[in-house]
Amino acid sequence: MKPTDNFEKLIRDLHVLDINTSAEMDQRILHDTLKAQKELKRTKSAGTQPDIWRKIMKSSITKLAAAAIIVVIGLGILAIIDTGSKSGVVWAEVARNVEASPGVIFRARGAGSRDPNDDWPNGYRIFSRSAAVSRMDVYRGDQIYRTIYLDYDGKTTIGVLHDAKKYSKEAMSDQTARAEKGWSDPQGLLNLGLSLEHHALGQKTINGMLCEGIEATGPDGSTGRVWVDVETGYPVLVEIEGVDGSTGTMDQFRWNVDLSAEGIEPEIPADYESLGLEGEMKILSEQGKKELLKVEQTIVDGTGRMRVHVYRYKLSDGQIKDNREAAAYEVDDMAHRKKFGAQLDEFRQLKKAGPVEDLGTYEETVEGRVFIFKREKYSLSDGTEVIWSVGTPKDDK
Amino acid sequence: MIEDKILLWKMKHGSSDALSRIYEKYKSDLFSLANSLLHDLNAAEDVVHDVFVSFVKSADQFQLTGSLKGYLLTCVANLSRDRIRARKRAPIGINKTDTAIPDYKVPSHALISAEELDGLREAIVKIPYEQREVVILHLQGGRTFRQIAESQGIAVSTVQSRYRYGIEKLRSLLNGEVEK
Asked: Using the beta-carbon criterion (under 8 Å), do A17 and B53 form an inter-chain contact?
């Protein structure tokens, strides 16, 4: 075949224009990309971190559902300081009931969301919330699809993808934990309640219960209607209309539920695969539950210093995982990094052949443990001098 | 698709492992596209680098509506176009001594000789950029004419015309009908 015969086929099927990337290219790009990701994470935790709850659910309806609970309490608090209700429902009592409830379970459904990832209107979600924990089960039809569990005190998040038979355990930042617990913050709710305009809807019977309703408009223009059982003084139905045309309904409320006794932490079936070990390792790392096994250090021409720590983790499923983690990287200049990256391959080859000079050993205490470092000197073809040190715990000797 | 969604979900939650896997999965496609468009491996590396850094920085706002590969290819194509425009504005006489040589993947030698391959690669560089972009995105990137049109904000018919002219020009170059 000549290229003129069918070059379209050559490009499309034989991939004659495809190229291989080199290890140096990969290292340069991945280093900067991972660094950008790390910096972003740090910025988020220091600033306004979008909470994981909303990021996962990505649903305006769900946001409204969470807001609706705030509306319930906020309106109640407003009623306490206002003139009070002149009808059958004592709204101050409703507020007290809601605030005193240790936990609540309810169903949420919706329609009209523009988010293609949403399950509305073919599915529903079951929420279990208290000040300490929160769980959301997402159903498509009658099949459970996802479970998201947040433990504010333990600062962990568990996500279960039932359809893919996968799960993830992640650490939760203090910022997120505080934000998520905020829905039960009385002072915040009082401020919200004061900002709402509301009016009474009168009475109607819902599922055989005489209820009284109130309608409020939120700061974002969404409208919420809360219907309360006159007899029990607890909300039984919440209806939301978002400014984007989406609607949401929360019903099947179970108030006064002790979620700690219900054992709502999701059980992960044995055949579900972890989405990655990183999540649990991150938690263990923050808790200091890791063992420093080895320290590697590279000094290039006495300036560009890179230090890597090798930690051992014992995971909850019994696995032992050794993880290399960058402890210091002082080669920030792009040109320097490009040069260093290009030298890595040669350096690796030289290491296999052995050092030009053995610089002996020295002791250094790292993270409270004494390490013996073995130092070696290598000389690259362009004259660059690399000092390579590997430290292992002295008490292992 | 589900794998990409899971990787994205993990990446958005700070997983460096997921980000590395996305890079490993698509790096060859992205490098090949950038190199074919720019005909400069160093510039291609810069483009892929900038696309990935930008991808990470905008991950929170990113919503995957199509394929992740398609999204990244579009980003590479858009940035390559910007670089080509900037290159045209740059003064003549840029030092090109550091130009790297691409490591092309080896196709079946029974079908095409190394000389013929070089001829094809050189010919592609010689067709007008707008035509080359469509030809490469369609043949190498696997993008449909409609997808290319949507990503560039032009009519499908325009994309088809550019493709047709590009192919004709390429054929002429390979047959020696056009002065090289």
From this structure: no
Domain containing B89 equals 1-99
For residues B71 and B134, membership in a common domain is answered with no
Task: Tell me the C-alpha distance between B180 and B173, whole Å.
Answer: 7
| Whether the predicted pLDDT of A43 surpasses 70 | no
The pTM is what? 0.41
Q: Are residues B86 and B147 in the same domain?
A: no
Instruction: Tell me which chain B residues have a C-beta less than 8 angstroms from the C-beta of A50.
Output: 60
- For B8-66, the pLDDT digits (tens) are 777 877 778 888 889 988 988 898 899 888 888 888 888 999 999 889 888 777 766 77
For residue range A132-151, list pLDDT tens digits in order.
888 888 888 788 888 888 88
Distance CA B27, CA B32 (A): 8
Residue reference for tokens 């988020």 = A44
Check CB contact under 8 Å for A22 and B103.
Answer: yes
> What b/e readout covers A27-38, taking b as 16+ CB neighbours within 10 angstroms?
bbbbbbbbbbbe
Q: Which among B73, B99, B125 is the end of a domain?
A: B99
Nearest CA in chain A to B166: A8
Orientation of helix B16-38 relative to helix B68-89, angle to 10°: 50
Q: Is the pLDDT of residue B110 over 80?
A: no
Mutate to test the interface with A, among B11, B15, B98 (most CBs of A within 10 A): B15
Q: At B1, which CATH number?
A: 1.10.1740.10
The mean pLDDT of A305-329, rounded to a whole number, is: 75
What's the pLDDT score for residue B51? 92
- Restricting to B residues 127-146, those with a Cβ less than 8 Å away from any Cβ of A are 135-136, 139-140, 142
Interface predicted TM-score of the whole assembly (ipTM), two decimals? 0.80
Burial class (CB in 10 A: 0-12, 13-18, 19+), A256: exposed
| Gap between the Cα atoms of A124 and A107, Å rounded | 7
For residue B126, what is the domain's CATH number?
Answer: 1.10.10.10
CA dihedral over B14, A285, A151, A99, signed as positive or negative: negative
Domains held by chain B: number: 2
- Look up tokens 């799960």; give the residue: A167
Q: In this predicted structure, what is the pLDDT of residue B76?
A: 92
Per-residue pLDDT for B149 more than 70? yes
CB contact (8 A) between residue B121 and residue A3: no
| Residue of A9, A10, A19 to mutate, testing the B interface (most B Cβ within 10 Å of its Cβ) | A19
Nearest CA in chain B to A164: B2
| Domains of chain A as residue ranges with CATH | 52-262 (2.50.20.20), 277-396 (no CATH)
Same domain, B64 and B125: no
Judging contacts by C-beta atoms under 8 Å, the chain A residues touching residue B7 are none
CB-based contact A17 B121, cutoff 8 Å? yes
Among residues B38, B71, B99, which one ends one of the domains?
B99
Per-residue pLDDT at A123: 78
- The reply to whether B59 and B42 lie within a common domain is yes
The whole-angstrom distance between residue B83's C-alpha and the CA centroid of its chain comes to 12
Domain co-membership, B137 together with B171:
yes
Q: Round to whole Å and give the CA distance between A281 and B85.
A: 46
